[in-house]
Write a structure and sequence with these properties.
This protein is mainly beta. It has two helices and six strands, in the order αββββββα. The chain has a six-stranded antiparallel β-sheet, with no helix packed on it.
Length: 142
């Protein structure tokens, strides 16, 4: 969770809100009523190989771009960027997290990430707080 994004955008809403008052309830209720300007997404790297043949792995803060190389900006004027990144050994892929505007936050959408002056292809693998490995929790329930 980043400071500039709210709970709805982070996919952390709950089906019910307790009736009792709590600090931030009014703001949270307002956020729930407003369509999100961005949604938390999990992206996977399609090919981390640079033009020189070296595998590159993002660390965070790299811009997310359209396939045409345009910067992606949400309705609130925030540019999309990698918020965190890391290896996903169970998936065999490198995973990136980013907040994307709803029109780009579609599973299977193809985008690019700019890193050290080169652009690398990525795919939106999940929207919201859905895990990529065993999203239905079948393994843990077995």
């Amino acid at each position: 969770l980043e400071m500039e994004f709210n709970l709805v955008e982070a996919g952390m809403t709950r089906p019910k809100v307790k009736a009792e008052d709590f600090i931030g309830k009014a703001a949270y209720m307002k956020q729930r009523e407003t369509p999100p300007a961005a949604l938390l997404c999990s992206l996977t790297m399609d090919d981390p190989t640079s033009s020189s043949g070296v595998k590159r792995f993002m660390q965070g803060r790299e811009p997310i771009l359209t396939l045409d190389g345009n910067i992606i900006t949400d309705a609130r004027g925030r540019n999309s960027y990698v918020t965190s990144a890391g290896a996903g050994p169970s998936l065999g892929k490198y995973i990136l997290m980013s907040y994307l505007p709803p029109e780009y936050a579609k599973v299977g959408a193809k985008l690019k990430v700019e890193y050290f002056g080169e652009r690398y292809p990525v795919t939106v693998a999940a929207v919201g707080a859905t895990p990529l490995f065993d999203p239905e929790n079948k393994r843990i329930k077995a």
